[in-house]
Specification:
The protein is of the alpha/beta class and about 290 residues long. Helix content is about 45%, strand content about 15%.
């Protein structure tokens, strides 16, 4: 069966048969390899990378989750041998940020945890009288620590203070009050942190802009091991595609189903990731506030 979907980034055809599931971009920029866990998606990607290396095609990037990067590098090295060091690299999104910063000479002055805690404390002080739940945080270091963890998680997910305020209006009770407080604290924190340096939680957002500004391209980008992507990660992926980098992603899901959305993939596992890559990220969900 064939399924057609038009997205904001590309036009593609989703096809499914007994041997492989995937999405091919009509312009050759995108391919999705879809299949059940253990169906050989990672092996297929590694064989393809090895073929490129044998052809001496460089600037190959395999992007994997942070916790999988060392294992993936060992696996790929066993397939490709010494040629991997000449023509390709295995990176996480954070390692990709460091790689491109080194190549472009645009290193960010990242603020350490102590500096971020100080910025959070100043932010709480600025909005203390407007807080509904976390007013005591100004004199409670343990609450400030929890709030910093929440702010970091929120920013990493690509959620801003306006989104939090909107989510607060759509909730009731204590959750609404906590989200309101977080929107105020996040707004004040952003203002404070902007005067001191770069927040590591903004690194991927900055990376997406850096890729666009410096016209960075790769010979081929591969994604493996992800079940979904945060908004900043999607920004990086889209920036690389818009610059012309071919992209192949291996995603775990059971395969296309009728009436399952624009891509015809299940709304779980790799199905969500496929919709993300296709330019249809899921709506923001309320984060879990501390306390």
């Amino acid at each position: 069966m064939n399924y057609r979907a038009e997205t904001t980034v590309f036009r593609m055809i989703l096809y499914h048969d007994n041997s492989e599931s995937g999405v091919r971009g009509a312009d050759g920029l995108l391919k999705l390899i879809l299949g059940r866990a253990g169906s050989g998606k990672t092996e297929k990607i590694m064989r393809e990378i090895n073929k490129h290396i044998e052809e001496k095609r460089g600037d190959l990037l395999l992007i994997v989750p942070e916790q999988y990067s060392h294992e993936a590098e060992r696996e790929l090295l066993s397939v490709c041998g010494a040629g991997l060091s000449l023509y390709g690299e295995v990176v996480s999104f954070s390692a990709l940020a460091r790689l491109i910063e080194n190549r472009t000479g645009t290193h960010a002055d990242l603020i350490d945890k102590g500096g971020r805690l100080l910025a959070l404390s100043r932010a709480v002080s600025q909005v203390e009288t407007r807080l509904r739940v976390y007013g005591a945080a100004r004199s409670r270091p343990e609450i400030q620590k929890s709030l910093l963890e929440a702010v970091t998680e929120i920013k990493t997910a690509g959620i801003n203070d306006e989104t939090l305020a909107g989510l607060s209006e759509n909730c009731d009770g204590a959750l609404s009050d906590k989200l309101w407080d977080l929107s105020l604290i996040l707004s004040a924190y952003e203002a404070v942190i902007s005067q001191s340096g770069a927040d590591p939680a903004d690194r991927l957002s900055a990376l997406a802009e850096r890729i666009k500004t410096n016209k960075f391209t790769a010979g081929h980008v591969y994604l493996d091991g992800f079940t979904d992507f945060t908004e900043p990660e999607m920004g990086v992926i889209k920036s690389m595609m818009e610059n012309g980098s071919p992209l192949t992603a291996a995603l775990t899901c059971e395969g296309p189903e009728e009436g399952a959305g624009g891509f015809g993939v299940p709304p779980r596992g790799g199905g969500r990731a496929a919709r993300d890559v296709g330019g249809n990220p899921p709506p923001a969900r309320p984060p879990r506030p501390p306390g």
